[in-house]
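pinned: reference chain
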Amino acid sequence: MNYKALYQEKQISAEKAVQVVRSGDWVDYGWCTGTPRALDRALAGRYEELADVKLRGGILFEVPETMKVPDTARHFTWNSWHMSGVERKMIDAGATFFNPMRYSELPRFYRENVEPVRAAFLQVAPMDSHGWFSFGPNASHLASVCERAEYVFVEVNRSMPRCLGGWDCGIHLSRVSGVVEGNSPAMWKLGSGGAPTAVDQAVADLIVPEIPNGACLQLGIGGMPNTVGAMIAQSDLKDLGVHTEMYVDAFVDMAEAGKITGRNKALDRGRQTYAFGAGSQRLYDYLDDNPECMSAPVDYTNDVRTVAQQDNFISINNIIELDLFGQVAAETAGVRHISGAGGQLDFVMGAYLSNGGKSFLCCSAAMQGKDGSLKSRIKPTLTNGAVVTDTRANVQYLVTEYGMVNLKGTSTWERAEKIISIAHPYFRDGLIQEAEKMKIWKRSNR
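pinned: its structure tokens
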């Protein structure tokens, strides 16, 4: 087949492509760095003739043009699978909502549960000689989106890396409704968050000694996991593997320091497996056409059964708060939505099922409130309205700058004692009093 000729036949302007959208339709906007730009602008230009168009995606780097139009909620709503800081602020405008999920189930949602998708608008890497467009660092669930969509329009971005994988990491020209030549803007960058804080360093100092040679790593986003990665890059650890939800700059640090070989992985030996990635230009350059890195769908990367097959699996993630029962909130602060469940629970469970595996949930023991006062992240019970991300039955290691405790196999009074031991000293006596009221404190504790 002459793919160049077919490519020319399927080229279409963004303005013409968005004409397929009708009032009331569901339109998928890809994922993370694959969120469309030219198609979004063109769809926003039609706002006066459209009502109740339901857009869906996640991890936005900037507010879509469709969500800036006058009387936004009348014309468009944004439905997020996982919220970034941008989306968190969009909630206040009244036209942005969260879709609860376990990330590993997302492809199945599209195949079995969600409303029919009228159109999928995706940014992709340039077509290869075989007619394939790579989803870039966003394999995630996009193949299932395309399966369910009546129309699929790809927006070519020549700045997007071509990310290799095994399956469901791209779409063939023959399955595309139209090709939009974007203006190829630079990839969105995810900042590193600055230098590690003293708290980040203290937490990392506790976790890194728990990682054996040959371990398989999953790192969440945030200062603490990144600091752990930076320490690993400077450590004596060797022959590490990567099997993660999100590929972040810390993995590039480790790989370039020679710490990652993947030779001990039971699955995808020698390859760094991930569902999506975002970070610096250095990260995108590293992923581009790199056969050592494996872009894969999230129902593989995050599946508990997949994770459990990797020996010595180490999972490291941030949380927002926890209570004395061991319940963990990692997606909301009270009723205020922060991010999403993502794959945290999948990796917490999978790591514990792994032979020699461990999961670590990390946070600072306290934080400074808006009024300047010190507030404990460890509460007697979770803040009213907080969503439980990790149940008390699933949590293994909890880590703050004051210590690390393992909750597996503990009774309620043992849990309370251990959790209070890693709380900020200023709050410990108050937490003990609350534990006594809740009948989860033994007089012999201390």
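why pinned: DSSP finds 16 helices and 24 strands in the chain. The first strand starts at residue 26 and ends at 28.
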